[in-house]
Task: structure prediction
Amino acid sequence: MARTTTPDHPFSQPVAHATTTGMSGGGFYNANSAAQWTAIETILPLIEEAIATLPVDGTGPIGVADYGCSEGRNSIAVMKHALPALLARTERPIQTFHSDLPTNDFSELFRSLRQDGGSVFGSDRIYSAAIGGSMYDQLCPPQTLHLATTFNAIGFLSRRPVDKLPGYILPNGPSVARANGYVSEENRRAFAEQAKQDIARYLAVRAKELVPGGKLLVEVFGSKGPARTCDGLYDLLNDAVLDFVETGDISRDAYDCYYQPVYMRELKELTDPVTDETYGAAGLFSLDRAMEYEIAVPFVDRFKKDGDLDRYTSDYVNFFRAFTEAVLRAALPESPSREDLINRIFARAEDRLKADPSLYPFRYAAVAILLTRNG
Ligand SMILES: C[S@@+](CC[C@H](N)C(=O)[O-])C[C@H]1O[C@@H](n2cnc3c(N)ncnc32)[C@H](O)[C@@H]1O
Result:
């Protein structure tokens, strides 16, 4: 699908407790997030387990919230899967919340929730709403949620822990094979620490919203052994951006300050804040499940089957453009030619990938935990 976001971009700076304004809107993220769906699909059994054990006694609505819903396609799909089992367990009405940053493009989500005058979830006992806010803040009243989820989102840090990352555009650094940059040990530690603090903060605010016995499911891209969801992809974006540093279109200083404020966690970095006293969230939740896994990436699989290089390069670049573009835009000085430069950077990425796809192999690993609210 062609990219169709509006050219004026009214929200180019992130709100508090966020480091991006969101995904590329206008349907672009929805159209380019099949890999993220595959990562969610793999852990549907965890959601089934959570639903089967939710505390449903009492009156009033059962609250189900998804944080970092983006344009909503995957958020709706996962709830479509989960809610029938919940309906079967209770007569209570169900309130779904789909939450993302205030700067997120919610248009597709709103269009989808009640397209035909009834709930997209096919029941008149299900009511839906959207909430704009950072997931690192409390967004729902105390003890009103029974299940909270987040998918492929908590890798986006709440703040930039360093001002400059001069050697590469991602804190985890380049792939071993490509080695096209560096990140100092000190900077790596700063990001790893920030990532843990973010989890703790997320746990603390969700703990306020959840009823005792409520469930929290956290899934995010990350790493599993040698498979890291950053390799290939950020190497390619880094190379493309550097091409424009060389031509002088991007200043060296702008490059030094630019990085994607995203951290790829290992499973232990996700689980530590659940139990480690130093992060301030220990004891709020008990850990039911912890998983690390790798998925088959749909556009990689298709390319292996059909060998269609044009399609592979556009699918691959659109996939990462959807979640990197907003941060890249905010890192470039505002000018009449900025949109054109952004288009050229992603076009350059396509050219580089097409010239030698073997330089940028991509794998998608994810980590996930299922927790129960203590108390
Ligand atoms: C890659 S998308 C994931 C969308 C969807 N959950 C999925 O799996 O397809 C990441 C989402 O996290 C959101 N996000 C990033 N930082 C956030 C924050 N601090 N609070 C809430 N949402 C945030 C982004 O706006 C984006 O919509």
